[in-house]
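Worked Example 4.2. Consider the chain below.
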Amino acid sequence: MGSRDSSHHLDLRGNGVTTDIVARAINRLEIMSSGESLSLRVDAGEAIDNDLRAWCEATGNHLLDVSDAGDFRTYVIEKGVPVSVVHRLAMVVSSPDHGHLEAPLSLALAAALEGVAVSIFFEGSAVNILTTSFRQEGRRWFGWRSRSSQSEAHHRVRQIHDLGGDLYACERALGEHHISLADLAFDRIIHGEYLTFLPVMEEADIQLLA
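Applying the procedure from the previous section yields the following structure tokens:
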């Protein structure tokens, strides 16, 4: 492919985390009109390439052009008409442990970025993830940013929340861990028990337990 002009440019070289790349691309596309194109410059890599192509196909955006320049690659993406939500993901998170959070939250975020309706039920000690004072020991997640594990978890959940994902909190677990409404870091949390979330899981075609 050759090169095409675009009035919108985003340079994310040095960021190897595709979900971060796509999230920032979405933020830029939101202020653009359908038919306008975004020139996205990133590190050249097979994983990034596959993810960007899959995201474009899933969301109705059009990949117009790809051009290489050494270690970097430029994607020209035309904003398309949003695709109607046809898939739903429901996930239950039971532990705030780093080893339990990384994969499921990354998968849930990837789903939300592709337009999947995401719902997450936090139970047990996992309700602490929803608080402003959440602390967790553990290794840093690999990525382009230097965040601690708890900051990464908050960042992932915040992105899912801001993309329209529904966050559920087990009311009994909130009480057991002495968490009040003032302690919660998110303004849109559905309080309930298992009977509240069970219909959500029944309607979802993707179900995860973490």
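Residues 88-209 form a domain with the Hypothetical Protein Ychn; Chain: A, fold (CATH 3.40.1260.10). Strands lie at 8-11, 37-43, 62-69, 72-78, 88-93, 117-122, 166-170, 189-192, 206-209. Compare this with Example 4.1 before moving on.
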